[in-house]
Design a protein that fits this description.
One of its GO terms (cellular component) is cytosol. With 282 residues, this protein is of the alpha+beta class. The protein has 2 domains: 129 residues, Roll (Diaminopimelate Epimerase, Chain A, domain 1); 119 residues, Diaminopimelate Epimerase, Chain A, domain 1, CATH 3.10.310. The protein is globular. The protein has a 17-stranded mixed sheet that branches. Strand 8 and strand 9 form a beta hairpin. The protein is 16% helix and 42% strand. It binds the ligand N[C@@H](CCC[C@H](N)C(=O)O)C(=O)O. The ligand N[C@@H](CCC[C@H](N)C(=O)O)C(=O)O binds next to helix 2 and helix 4.
């Protein structure tokens, strides 16, 4: 089995190209959940935060499926979709710098930044966030923005819930030293307030144009970056009056540019890198 390893700011993916292989396009034929757990294993597999499937689409230029390292299938992946877009362009599957990708969170329009026929940056229109409790998978009955106090590890913590296709729980803090990000992240991921579990972002506001974010990803754990998490953090920062709408988001793996535009759409810009190609031996 051939694979490609890619990453977006250190958020790394094992990518399987099934674009031209109709037999493999039938999801029933392969247990991708089991395969993701096996291939993403850091010691026994290739190693990765997730498994990306590159598929043809009847509704868009291509279709992306993503599986977390624990085998669960999320709706969307921000860093993954930039890798996906770069790959399908450079592979010649699409021959234009504006394309669309079908995901479980809808069809995402994408613009490629090109130099000498290669992609050096990718902007994804992530769509509008879902902000009220009625639209986010949370145990709440209000229809307002979900700012909530939750009990976590014996302490009350203020959070903002934001869905950008997948669920996010955003916490603001003044100093990362004040919170055990790993313990609180793990506890919030499975907090009963989030029936579908959640990704968790710890956000320090550095200025009106910059934030620093650490991430605990649903189905993975701590990662070097999370594209959807960066988008959710910016939305939460804007809604809580902490920043402007166009931000540089500093993540452990590098920076993303995120704009929460006036009309409510989120635009994410960042890099996508190849690591290596390989062949799995059974
Ligand atoms: N790393 C991703 C998000 C991947 C999915 C997430 N773990 C979930 O379960 O929702 C990103 O860059 O957005």
């Amino acid at each position: 089995m051939d694979f490609i390893k890619m990453h977006g700011l250190g958020n790394d993916f094992v990518c399987l190209d099934r674009f031209l292989d109709p037999a493999e396009n039938n999801p029933a034929e392969t247990d991708y959940s089991e395969l993701a757990q096996r291939l993403c294993h850091r010691q026994l597999g290739i190693g990765g935060d997730g498994l990306l499937l590159i598929l043809p689409s009847e509704k868009a230029d291509a279709r992306m499926r993503i599986f977390n390292a624990d085998g669960s299938e999320p709706e969307m992946c921000g860093n993954g979709i930039r890798c996906f877009a770069r790959y399908i362009y450079e592979q010649g599957y699409v021959q234009k710098d504006q394309l669309t990708v079908e995901t479980l969170a809808g069809i995402k329009p994408i613009r490629l930044q090109m130099k000498d026929g290669r992609v050096y940056g990718v902007t994804v229109d992530m769509g509008k966030p879902r902000l009220s409790a009625k639209e986010i998978p949370v145990n709440d009955h209000s229809d307002r923005v979900v700012n909530k106090r939750l009990e976590v590890l014996g302490k009350e913590i203020g959070i903002t819930a934001v869905s950008v296709g997948n669920p996010h729980c955003v916490l603001f803090l003044d100093d990362f030293a004040e919170t055990d990000v790993l313990a609180v992240g793990a506890a919030l991921e499975k907090h009963p307030f989030f029936p579908a579990k959640t990704n968790v972002e710890f956000v320090r506001v550095d200025s009106g144009e910059e934030i620093t974010v650490k991430v605990w990803e649903r189905g993975v754990g701590p990662t070097l970056a999370c594209g959807t998490g960066a988008c959710a953090s910016v939305v939460a920062a804007v809604l809580n009056g902490r920043t402007g709408r166009r931000l540089t988001v500093h993540l452990p793996g590098g920076d993303l540019q995120i704009e929460y535009a006036e009309e409510g759409r989120i635009l994410m810009t960042g890099p996508a890198q190849y690591v290596f190609r390989g062949q799995l031996i059974d």
